[in-house]
Amino acid sequence: MTDLSAAGSRVVLRPVASPLPLGFLALALATVPFAAVQLEWVLPTDGRTAAIAAVAATVPLQLLASVLGFLARDVAAATGMGVLAGTWGTVGLATLTSPPGATSKGLGVFLLTAGLCMFVPAAAASAKLVPATVMGLAGLRFLATGAYELSSSAAWKATAGWVGLLLGLVAFYAALALALEGAQGRTVLPLGRREPVSDEPGVRPVL
Fold first, then answer.
1. Which one, of 169, 168, 187, lies nearest residue 178 by Cα?
2. Residue pair 195/152 in contact by the 8 Å Cβ criterion
3. CA-CA distances (angstroms) from residue 66 to 35, 59, 71, 125?
4. Among 27, 31, 116, 199, which is most exposed with the fewest C-beta within 10 angstroms?
5. Ordered DSSP codes for 99-162
6. Beta-strand pair 204-206/8-13
7. pLDDT tens readout for residues 49-89
8. Is residue 70 within a helix (H) or strand (E), and if so which, with residue range?
9. Is the pLDDT score of 9 beyond 60?
10. Rounded (10°) angle between helices 75-96 and 20-38
11. pLDDT in tens, 87-119
12. Pairwise CA distance, residues 130 & 191, whole Å
């Protein structure tokens, strides 16, 4: 990306592409299968498949997105993807090592904490409404699931499932919008952006 001015040429560099499309699609790969289990659209035993998907697909992809976020100096992406990777890894391993349909108060406390932690990157990403909404919904999804783990309430279980599905849809939209923007160099689908592209983390002017 270049910007020519009267004072000379200014080159604006983005060291790496935005890691958010990868991280958000990885999020959808975890939240939707777990939502299907919580809403009882599939058998409780299928929770093991959701857990394997979280550990084998979501965790490594989000860890990669977190590293790329740090390299791009994008604190919201780096922090959000890192917390998501750790949380889904814990949920996946806990599900794999527990009987189908079992709840855990220890996991519930962890998820409540993880849900609150997700509001930090959501606040940091507030310059773009849609990505911030994804991270905020992830926080709500963890809070609802944590409440279910603590109470074994069918109402909280269903709430967690529906929030998880909504999160998957919004994450997919955000990933598509960000990927199209990165590929075409312009906004194709609205992201609720409140800052110019040149002010984003990872975009640095070199005079």
1. 187
2. no
3. 24, 10, 9, 14
4. 199
5. -TT---HHHHHHHHHHHHHHHHHHHHTTTBHHHHHHHHHHHHHHHHHHHHHHH--HHHHHHHHH
6. antiparallel
7. 999 999 999 999 999 999 999 998 889 999 999 999 999 99
8. helix 59-71
9. no
10. 30
11. 999 999 999 999 999 999 999 999 999 999 999
12. 5
Burial of 39 (0-12, 13-18, 19+ CB in 10 A): middle
Separation CA 12–CA 206 (nearest Å): 6
CB 88 within 8 A of CB 60: no
Residue 49's contacts (CB-CB under 8 Å, 6 or more residues apart) are 33
Q: Which two tokens stand for residue 192?
A: 């609720």
β 8-13/2-5 pair status: antiparallel
**Do residues 63 and 82 make contact, with C-beta atoms less than 8 angstroms apart?**
yes
CB 51, CB 91: distance < 8 Å: yes
Q: Say how far apart CA 44 and CA 84 lie, in whole Å.
A: 23
What tokens does 156 get? 């909280």
pTM: 0.85
What is the DSSP secondary structure assignment for residue 185, as one 8-state letter?
A: S
Length of the chain: 207
Single out the residue of 60, 160, 147 nearest to residue 108, CA to CA.
Answer: 147
pLDDT at 122: 95
What type of residue is 147? A
